[in-house]
């Protein structure tokens, strides 16, 4: 490597055109996945803790999906808020569930948009946990698997292109893969939340999805934020169980995990820039403390640089607008 003054790093930084020539990380609208919250209610309902994000009716969700598709966003990821919640999360796996109906409505309007659905019971259970409870209030792994698999099949029957299990039960990717295959859906990919941490950054989402646990927390099934080697083990297990895309979540506090999972697996990797990450930028920008647009771009650039191929973010629409125009 040449040294100063033979080498001057500033030469290639002098103008925007020169910088663009040697830019290492490119962003495209198609790299982004937009989460959408579909509610059984009519109309649109702003989420207080997430400025710019709304719960939307089935018709409004299809409307939003069409808008995102026109902007070139890569995919939408649907979360459902059902009319009734019960102990077993029944609303999650009925053919006329809110997500199932929304998928049909979106597909009727825009066939080609990639529709991903969240597979997890927490929005559908009255206790707010991601699986079934035992008599002593533990989240039971094995009895939950069958329900998750049923939920995935019902989403695909409605027209979902990819299913994304976020529950963190052990063995759920294998259970979903086997059940999808048995139902004839051998071509449907699974995007697995391989390394999902028990994170305080999910706070605002729980308002949006109305999925706050009614007792305890999720540390018994989601990963300990102190661990990274374990994330590689989780990723490996999900690959063996049949995952097609891996995910790390949250994104910014776990860039090391994104980097390592990508390097060690070489698998398509998604990173979820979660609600708390989004809301922190919004809050600081509202106070005039940071430049929202520049921070938004810098953050997604860092996530891509670390190794993520896809970024799930509430900024997907704004980023696509900014990059496309
Ligand atoms: C669970 C789920 C959560 C998120 C996505 N799927 C919340 C949780 O585990 O409590 C969080 C996403 C975000 O914070 O943006 N189904």
Q: TL;DR?
A:
By secondary structure, the protein is an alpha/beta fold.
Give a written overview of the molecule.
With about 325 residues, the chain is an alpha/beta fold. It has helices spanning about 15-20, 60-70, 100-110, 140-160, 170-180, 205-210, 230-240, 255-265, 275-285, 290-305, 315-325, and strands at about 30-40, 45, 55, 75-80, 115-120, 130-135, 140, 160-165, 190-195, 245-250, 270-275, 310-315. Strands 1, 2, 3, 4, 5, 8, 9, 10, 11 and 12 form a ten-stranded mixed β-sheet that branches. The protein is globular and about 70 Å long. The mean pLDDT is about 95. The chain binds ligand PBG. The site of ligand PBG has 10 residues, from α6.
As a whole number of angstroms, the C-alpha radius of gyration is 20 Å
Q: For the report, how would you describe the main beta sheet?
A: 10 strands, mixed
- Helix residue percentage: 25-40%
Coarse structural class:
alpha/beta
- 3D shape: globular
Cα distance, first to last residue? 38 Å
Query: What's the β-strand tally?
Result: 12
Low-confidence sequence ranges: none
Indicate the proportion of strand residues.
Answer: 15-25%
Along the chain, the helix and strand elements come as: HEEEHEHEEEHEHEHHEHEHHEH
Molecules bound to protein: ligand PBG
Q: How many DSSP helices? A: 11
- Mean of residue pLDDT values: 97
